[in-house]
Amino acid sequence: MSYLFTRLINQLRCWGSYALSIAGVSYVRHMPTFVSVEPANFCQLSCPECPVGMNGTVSIQNAANIEPILDNTRTHIGVMTIGDYRKIVRQIAPYAHTIQLFWQGEPLLNDQLPEMVNIAHEAGLYTIISTNAQRLDLDLARALNHAGLNRIIVSMDGWMQSTYEQYRRGGSVDKVKQAVRWLRQAKQESHSRMVIELQCIRLRTNEAEWDIFRREYKALGADKLTMKTAQLYDYKHGSPLMPSNQRFSRYKWEKRTQTFVPKRPMRNRCYRLWSGCVIDVHGNLLPCCYDKLQQHSFGNLLQPGITLQDLWHNKRAETFRRAVITNRSAMAICTNCDE
Fold first, then answer.
1. DSSP 87-146
2. Distance in angstroms (rounded) separating the CA atoms of residues 132 and 106
3. What mean pLDDT do residues 260-275 have?
4. For residue 175, which of 204, 127, 132 has the smallest C-alpha distance?
5. What Rg, from alpha-carbon coordinates, does the chain have?
6. Percent of the chain predicted with pLDDT > 90
7. How remote is the C-alpha of 98 from its chain's centroid?
8. What's the CA gap between 294 and 291, in Å, rounded?
9. pLDDT higher than threshold 90 for residue 109
10. 244 pLDDT exceeds 70?
11. Of 75, 74, 79, which Cα lies nearest the Cα of 293?
12. Distance of alpha carbon 187 from alpha carbon 141, whole angstroms
C-alpha cells in the first residue's frame, strides 16, 4: 500500500507546526516524519563517550549547575522481536518517510536485522543503519543489500589500529575496512543504489589521519565520507578527546567563565523534536536521541491498546515540547545537542 499522499500531508503539517513553535506556539497535529528504532540495546565495544559502551553508565551535565549527574544502569538487555517491530512499523508507515534502525546499541547484534530492513522496505520506508561493523561479513552484507537497505553508516574513528582502538575500545579497524569492501562487493553484485557512508568522529586521537580519510575512503569502497564533531559529556574543563583546533570541535573556550561551552547558541526551538522520535528496544517512545537515560518517555508503544498517535499527542509529550520552546537551556538533555 502506498502512503505517499498521507506522508506528504504529514510533512507539510510538520513544517507548519515547527514554524509556529518558533513563534512560541506549541501546536502539533502531525505525526513523526522519521523514527529511530533500536534493534538491540547492547554493544561489544566500550567507547568512552557512549552510555552503552560505559556499561550503561554515563555522566550527563545538568544545565542548571553544570554538575555531572549520573545514575542509570541500562537493565533488561536484549533485542527487539520481529513481532514487536511489525507492530511499530504498521503504526509509523502511514506518516513517516524514514526509519533509522539504530540508537544506542549495535544493530547488527540483532540476528533478524535483515528481515527488519525488508519489512520497512516493503512499507516504502527509507532505511538507514549505523554500525561499528565488527560483526559484518559478506553474507550479512548481501542479506542487508537484498533486503532493500538504502544507506549504511560505518563508524571508523581511526585509520590505523593504534588510533582506532583509543576510542573504539575492543574493536578491530581491519574488520571495519573489510566490512566496507564486502558492502561494496554486495552492492556491485546486485547493482543496487545502497549508499555506503564512512563516518569518522573528529577526535584529538585521530586528527593526524583526517587527510588519509579524505584521500582513501573511495578506494576503500565507501560512497561518502562524513567527518563528525564529537559529543563529549564532561567538556566543561576540556577533554583529551577534544580536537586541538577548536574549529573542529562542538565547544569553544569562554574567557568569562574560563570553561568550554557549546558553540551552537541555545534557541528555544528544535526541528528534530518536532519531526521525529526514538523507540527503544522495549517500545518506549522517547523525544529524541539525546534522551540517553530515558528520562522523558512519552509512554510505551507496545502496551495493549496504545497507539503512536496517543503517545505523540499525550500530555507528557505536550509538556516536554512546551518546556523546550519556553526555556530549552533548562532541559539537561538539550545542553549538548547540535540542533
1. HHHHHHTTT-SEEE--SSS-GGGSTTHHHHHHHHHHTT-EEEEEE--TT--HHHHHHHHH
2. 7
3. 91
4. 132
5. 20
6. 81
7. 13
8. 5
9. yes
10. yes
11. 74
12. 8
Q: Which residue has the cell 528520562?
A: 295
Extract the runs of DSSP E, i.e. beta strands, from the chain: 34-37, 60-61, 68-69, 98-100, 126-131, 151-155, 195-202, 224-229, 251-254, 259-262, 276-279, 284-286, 299-300
Chain-wide mean pLDDT for the chain? 91
Q: Residue 61: which region, alpha, beta or left (left: phi > 0; alpha: psi -120 to 50)?
A: beta
Would you say 73 and 43 are in contact if contact means Cβ atoms under 8 Å apart? no
Distance CA 61, CA 335 (A): 8
Q: How long a stretch of residues is the chain?
A: 339
Q: What are phi and psi of 338, to 5 degrees?
A: -100, 15
- Using DSSP's 3-state secondary structure scheme, residue 200 falls into strand
DSSP assignment of 143-164: HHHHHT--EEEEE---SSHHHH
The C-alpha cell at 191 is: 547493482
Cell of 154: 560505518
Confidence grade of residue 38 (pLDDT, cut at 50, 70, 90): very high
CA distance 320 to 221: 42
Q: Which residues contact 144 (CB under 8 A, 6 or more apart)?
A: 113, 114, 117, 129, 152, 186, 194
